[in-house]
Specification:
single chain, mainly alpha, two-stranded antiparallel sheet, 8 helices, 2 strands, 2% strand
Length: 203
């Protein structure tokens, strides 16, 4: 193997798992939307709301919020400040990435313990919400635990990848982040500066 051969982005190995739970998050969100629409329809058209609809939607929001976060992390689409990060190069960029993902993974592990304790206590007493129908609260709390677990797994992969990048910066590509902030070219196009320059050039 030549020294210039790039090392594969192995932090993407859990992608299928993370994508699956991303679809779970989207599916639960769709279910909640349909349930809310049906509840509103039944309430105002037939004066017969769906019993427990609000409690079910509230309980499932944990799955919407947490199940897809690890996939978002993998794709670099969480809210991030890329203005400084994008200007870094080589080993320095890997070091900064390593510190960020290491601290994030430690936080995720701490939250795994906290969310598991919440879920387990709820499971032992079969915690229910006070509603017209039985809604088990521990289902939502398990969704929060699962989300933190997936984040910790993905964060660990990214931390190790950055560590390899520190050791071999020329063979490891940096983890990219997808910033929603517009580029200078996009901003200039929006402000009409490009059109002004074209007109000035034509004159």
């Amino acid at each position: 193997m030549s020294k210039s051969t790039k090392i594969a982005a192995f932090y993407e190995k859990p992608e299928l798992l993370m994508k699956f739970f991303g679809w779970v998050s989207a599916g639960v969100m769709l279910f909640n939307m349909v349930l809310i629409c049906c509840d509103v329809f039944m309430r105002y058209v037939f004066n017969s709301p769906i019993q427990g609809a609000t409690e079910i939607v509230t309980m499932l929001m944990a799955w919407v919020a947490y199940a897809g976060m690890a996939y978002t992390l993998l794709k670099g689409q969480h809210m991030q400040l890329g203005a400084i990060y994008d200007k870094l190069q080589g080993r320095t960029k890997h070091v900064i990435s390593f510190v960020i993902y290491l601290l994030a993974t430690i936080l995720f592990v701490v939250m795994i313990k906290a969310s598991w304790d919440q879920f387990w206590a709820s499971w032992l007493i079969k915690e229910k919400s006070v509603a017209a129908v039985t809604v088990y609260v521990f289902i939502g709390k398990f969704g929060a635990f699962l989300g933190w677990l997936l984040l910790a797994i993905q964060g660990a992969f990214m931390t190790v990848y950055c560590a390899v990048g520190i050791a071999m910066p020329n063979r490891v590509d940096h983890i990219l982040i997808n910033s929603e902030l517009p580029t200078e070219a996009e901003l200039s196009a929006f402000s009409g500066e490009d059109e002004k320059k074209k007109k000035e050039g034509g004159n």
